[in-house]
């Protein structure tokens, strides 16, 4: 790994290296000068174990992923998660509007609704992130600190990986699907909250407040889009 600043996953202290190579095939994990624990025990762990710890929202696993690895798939993951969300909304829309009208069938065949749902999901995500970043920027500005906007954005996008669970929830449709969707949403928000705590090294209260502001902005956009949709239907009733 290039000469980069690492972090101790236990106490968040800066570290220059994660391990030392003694040339004779001997590698020794660096011990943190502050907490006297291994700087990053996860470098020895299997990726599956790290993923399980991330699913359990362990802050050490989040620190390892965000500070001590070079994962740069956040934009690809973001697009994939938006596709999952668009597919969920699109499938719910088709279930709620069964129609034998040929015009509707053609519309569904072209899947314009899917792209509309993708756009709506993207806009809501943008508003959520804007709310979170705006609130945290303000708090950090009041404290006289600078917000690492790009790094925090990456953390928020990476920690939204739970949205991929929407696909199996839609495919294996059952009576408890709405409950599953709510649980997935709570899981994603919990992961987002942990990611904020790791980047800002702050308490749970501040991260939850940032999530609440983001959700509020997202809900405002959702309601506005619904009102626009209803008004459009009033002006141009379906033929
Ligand atoms: Zn430490």
From TrEMBL:
A UniProt-annotated Pfam family: Arv1
Subcellular location: Endoplasmic reticulum membrane
Superkingdom of this protein's organism: Eukaryota
Keywords: Endoplasmic reticulum, Lipid metabolism, Lipid transport, Membrane, Transmembrane, Transmembrane helix, Transport
InterPro entries: Arv1
Transmembrane domains' residue ranges: 73-92, 112-139, 151-170
GO biological process assignments: intracellular sterol transport; regulation of plasma membrane sterol distribution; sphingolipid metabolic process; sterol metabolic process
GO CC terms, sorted: cortical endoplasmic reticulum; endoplasmic reticulum membrane; Golgi apparatus
Membrane topology: Multi-pass membrane protein
Record-stated family: Belongs to the ARV1 family.
Protein purpose: Mediator of sterol homeostasis involved in sterol uptake, trafficking and distribution into membranes.
The protein's name in its UniProt record: Protein ARV
Species whose genome carries this gene: Denticeps clupeoides (denticle herring)
């Amino acid at each position: 790994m290039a000469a980069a600043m690492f972090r101790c996953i236990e106490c968040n202290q800066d570290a220059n290296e994660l391990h030392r190579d003694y040339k004779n095939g001997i590698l020794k994990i660096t011990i943190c000068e502050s907490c006297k624990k291994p700087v990053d025990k996860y470098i020895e762990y299997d990726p599956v174990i790290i993923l399980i710890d991330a699913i359990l929202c362990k802050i050490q696993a989040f620190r390892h992923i965000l500070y001590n690895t070079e994962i740069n798939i956040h934009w690809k993951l973001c697009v994939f998660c938006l596709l999952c969300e668009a597919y969920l909304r699109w499938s719910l829309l088709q279930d709620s509007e069964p129609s034998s009208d040929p015009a509707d069938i053609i519309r569904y065949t072209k899947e314009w609704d899917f792209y509309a749902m993708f756009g709506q999901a993207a806009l809501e995500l943008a508003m959520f992130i804007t709310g979170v970043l705006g609130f945290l920027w303000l708090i950090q500005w009041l404290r006289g600190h600078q917000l690492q906007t790009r790094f925090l954005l990456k953390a928020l996008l990476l920690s939204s990986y739970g949205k991929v669970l929407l696909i199996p929830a839609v495919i294996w449709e059952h009576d408890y699907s709405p409950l599953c969707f709510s649980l997935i949403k709570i899981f994603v928000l919990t992961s987002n909250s942990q990611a904020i705590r790791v980047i800002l090294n702050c308490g749970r209260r501040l991260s939850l407040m940032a999530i609440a502001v983001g959700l509020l902005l997202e809900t405002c956009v959702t309601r506005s889009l619904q009102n626009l949709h209803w008004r459009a239907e009033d002006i141009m009733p379906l033929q």
